[in-house]
Structure formats: C-alpha cells, structure tokens
Amino acid sequence: MAGRHYSAYAAVKSKRSPLLLFTLSLLFLLFLFYIFTSSPSTSSPALDPSSIHAASNPNVDYSFVSSLEKFLINSKSKSSSKVRDDTVRGDASDRDVKIFDDLISQGEEKRLYGDEYPLYSQIRVYVYDMPSKFTYDLLWLFHNTYKETVNLTSNGSPVHRLIEQHSIDYWLWADLIAPESERLLKNVVRVHKQEEADLFYIPFFTTISFFLLEKQQCKALYREALKWVTDQPAWKRSEGRDHVLPVHHPWSFKSVRKFMKKAIWLLPDMDSTGNWYKPGQVYLEKDLILPYVPNVDLCDSKCLSESKRITLLFFRGRLKRNAGGKIRSKLVTELNDLEDVIIEEGTAGEGGKAAAQIGMRKSIFCLSPAGDTPSSARLFDAILSGCIPVIVSDELELPFEGILDYRKIAVFVSSSDALQPGWLLSFLRSISSSQIREKQINLAKYSRHFRYSHPALPMGPEDLVWRMIAGKLMNLKLHIRRSQRVVKESRSLCTCECRRSNSTSPVPLS
C-alpha cells in the first residue's frame, strides 16, 4: 500500500518537475532583470531628472532668446485683457502708508487666527505694474538688436551674451506674471492686492538698461525707477525690506543702489573685492545668490553615457582677469603644458561656445577659478556638462546653499594649495574612481537646479529662489515690525553678531 502511494507520488513529481524548474528559472531571470535595471549603471550616471521634466513638458523652453520671442508675442495679444492691480501711480502720502499698514495688519490677523488663509503655506508675491519703459520696452530693445549687434564690453565680452547670462530678471518675472493655470510652481503665488502680499517684486531690467542704453540715459532711467518704487506705500512702510530687486550683473544699477540697500538683492555673488558693492550693501542674511544662465547645452543621460572623458583637467576662458580673478594667470603659469591638462584662451561667439562644450564633455574635472568677482559662469557650464568643478575661489558664495550640498558635486581647493608646484594635479589624481563616479551621478541629479526655463519647473532655479526667500521671511517681518515701533531711546541696531571696532561682519537688517 505504501509502495503504491510512493509510486503515485513519484509519477506526479516526475510530471511536475519540468514545470517547477521552468517556473523557478523564470522567476530567477526576472529577479536578475530587476536587479540590473533598478541599480545605477556602472557605465553611465543615473537618468537626469531634468530630462524627465522636459519629456513630460514638451513646451518647456530653456533658451532666453526663444522664450523671449514667444513672451513678447503673447504679451501683445494679452495686453487688452491684462489684469489691473492696485499699484499706486504717484507719491504715497503718510496717510496712504498708514491705511496700507492697517490693511496689512488685518490680513496678518486673519492668517494668524482664522482658517481662511493657511499661515505661510505659500509665498504671496505682488508684482509691481511698472511703466513699460522699465519692462517691456527694454525687452523689445534687446529683441530688436541682439541679432545685428557686434558691441563688446571693455574686456571683449559680447554685450548681448552677457545680458543672456544675467537674465534672471526675465525668467522670474515671466513666471510670476504668467496665468496661474499655466504655472507649475505651487509654493509661490502672485497676488493683485498689495495688502495680501508677503513680498514685492520689482520688474526692472537693470542689466539690459545698463548695456544697451547710453550712459546718461541709463542713469536717468535708474533715477526714475528709484523714485517710482520708493513712492509706493509698501516701500515706505518697510523701507524696502520686503522688496525683491534683481541686480544680477555687478555693474548694473550702481548709481542708485545706496538708496535701495535694504531690499532683497538677487546677485551673482557677494564680491569680497569691494569693487562692485559698497560695505553694508550686500550680505547673506538679506540677499540671495542666483546661478548664471549657462552658456552650454545640457549633457543629458544619453550624452553622459556616451562621453569619453579622456582629459583630467580642462579650462577654457579668459586667462587674464582683474581684481579677484588674478588667480587665473597664476594657475595658467602653473598648469600650462602639463600632461592630461588642457588650458585654452576663450573666444566669443558660437565657435567659442562649441569648443568649451566639447572640452567639458571630454574632461573629468573642470577648473573654476574666480573671475573679476569670486563667481564665474563657467561653474554652471561645468555642472550641465557633467564635468566635476574644481573651485579655486576662496571668497565664493554659492546659489541655494541652504538647500544644495555642493560637496557632492564639486571639489574645493584653496588658492594657496592650488598654486603650489605639482600639488593640484597630484590631489586630483588621488581622488578614487568611486568618488569620481559618485560626483558624476550627483551632477546628473543636480543639473535641473541650474536650468532656467519657461514655464519654470519645480526644483528649477526659479523655484529654489522662493524656497530660499521663504527661509528669510520671518526675519524680514521681524525687522519691519521692529522698525515701526522703536522709540528714540531704543538702540539703533538689532543684531546678534559679536561686533568689534575693526569687525567686517555684515550690517544688520534693521
């Protein structure tokens, strides 16, 4: 009996064995497929998130010229349906300021105690409706002249390329004034009543006016813009502390800056040389560093996987700079004609751009020394090219550093170390292949944070601007309220900084 049962079991088992083996084999193959497709490839960095956004948003435009063309055409068709706001046309009286302040206080009460508004779940920005001579006329001036112009700055840089490089004022404004149904950013919303605003955006194109207007004409326009803004009740109430002013080129708006030094400035860097900003005008507690607009195309996941990085260290740019950029000529002397190193003098135009782009895509490391100021657009070109930046700029402040950790994508070297004979190349060669690989993967992830676009994308630079400013908002409100209630006998300064008579610490917000 037992034998019959065993024989039957063996017969069934013999029939099931091939099926069981096939099933197990299939499961094993599926497991292997999952492992190799879900883990990062050893030959190429992870998929660039910005390419995912671009694929899901085919209408995203990353080109300043192309985006501006569409923007100006649309502005013509929408001019008749433009939303009117309550921007004051003329000098606000003390009574106007008092009425405005009361309205602000009422709104704050509702947000603090009522359920009508969440408490600062979004930043609410009021965009001033400035006369067209400060906004659209300047954009049209750029649009109508950029193809024909051969104007160069004193150091040989193409004027219109510099404007594109510093066009952060366009990208932020174009996003803020777009119809809400077309905007992708949800942490910042435009409001049309001043008393509802947390912040006030000044849409004056300071860089375009500086480069494309005659000197005296430009200075006159700056004075007009200054008067127009400082006449607003919101400015008078806060002395500009809650106003956002784009001054991304260090030469722009220079003649009237001292009258607007309490506003939030959007800058390329803090400039420790003292050549561009006067003491007390800029500091991290108040202002914000924004990336330059890159001059190269994104090296996407396909490009990254195909790039053969055969050069250890690459640099292409102007080899002699002023002020803080003198480190360049010293580095060139140290690195010239060394094996695995390419150092080239930069040239303007499409040819120069193509040469820089090709060189960066063929290199593991890209040298990023200081320019005339501590920052350089080359840093962001390297990031988009998948080339690990080697930052030799002792006083550099970086964009969005409260959010991004640049140690994951860059190498930081002091000037004194970099200039020691043989030190820099020995240091770079000591970095392991696994560390290089990790930084390259992070470069692919981080590139989305430095690509301006329209519409602005979540976690793009426009988005990170408002996320960084959100962190300053409570402190701004503190200093506005404090400035309104202090009496004569109060201390004129409010700071937690330890100050000495010879201190160079930042001037406090109040």
Automatic annotation (TrEMBL):
Root EC class: transferase
InterPro entries given in the database record:
Exostosin (IPR004263), Exostosin_GT47 (IPR040911)
Q: Which residues form the Exostosin GT47 domain?
A: 122-426
Q: What is this protein called?
A: Acetylglucosaminyltransferase EXT1/exostosin 1
**GO CC: one term?**
Golgi membrane
Write out the GO MF terms: xylogalacturonan beta-1,3-xylosyltransferase activity
What is the predominant subcellular site recorded for this chain?
A: Golgi
Specify the superkingdom: Eukaryota
Which cell locations does it reside in?
A: Golgi apparatus membrane
Q: Which UniProt keywords apply?
A: Glycosyltransferase, Golgi apparatus, Signal-anchor, Transferase, Transmembrane
Q: Which organism is it from?
A: Handroanthus impetiginosus
Reported EC number(s) for this entry are 2.4.2.41
Give the family, as the similarity comment puts it.
Belongs to the glycosyltransferase 47 family.
* Membrane topology field: Single-pass type II membrane protein
